[in-house]
Amino acid sequence: MTASARVHAMDFTQTLGAKPARRIQDLSPEATLAKLETLAHLLDSAFLIPGINRRVGMEAIIGLVPIVGDIAGVVISSYIVYEAKRLGAPRWLIARMALNVAFDGAIGIVPLAGDIFDAAFKANRRNVRLLRRWMERKGGLRPTEIEGTAVRLDG
Questions:
Q1: What is the three-class DSSP state of 56?
Q2: Is the dihedral of CA 123, 74, 106, 66 positive or negative?
């Protein structure tokens, strides 16, 4: 192998002596909210149950494992509350979100009935919706829905 072939075979960053590139994360409120919406969808409504057309998520599936699954669901759901606090949400909103997670976790511990409730309550989607509404009202986020009355112009 010639010297030039070895240089081309080497990693470009090693050739220049540069540090490996780090992944840049977007920490803007919009990006964080989009990430939380994706997480809430995955946890609460990622899969469609055929026949009954009901959506469930990973939290309902891991909740089938007694106690450990329910604790894991509460821990993962608490991440959304943590991110809301990091975004500067007021105490009343954090408390309401934490109560949603606690209620979901407490009822979810009950065998079978708790799992059915967990599939129906969808605490994560509720919490992200609460956070989005607060961010829209605060002015830190453009609204997804336009308030007002629509008037048809063609007729």
A1: strand
A2: positive
Q: What is the pTM of this model?
A: 0.73
Residue ranges of the domains in the chain? 25-138
What's the number of CA atoms in the CB half-sphere (13 Å) around residue 25?
5
Residue 128 predicted with pLDDT over 80: yes
Q: Are 118 and 59 in contact (CB under 8 A)?
A: yes
The phi, psi pair for 48, rounded to 5°, reads: -100, 125
132 token code pair:
């989005």
| CB atoms closer than 10 angstroms to residue 41 | 17
Q: Please say whether the beta carbons of 144 and 132 come within 8 A.
A: yes
For residue range 57-83, what is the model confidence (pLDDT) as tens digits?
Answer: 999 889 888 889 999 999 999 999 999
Distance CA 15, CA 67 (A): 52
To 5 degrees, how large is the angle CA 96–CA 72–CA 26?
A: 70
Per-residue pLDDT band for 12 (boundaries 50, 70, 90) equals very low
Confirm if 124 and 60 have CB atoms less than 8 A apart. no
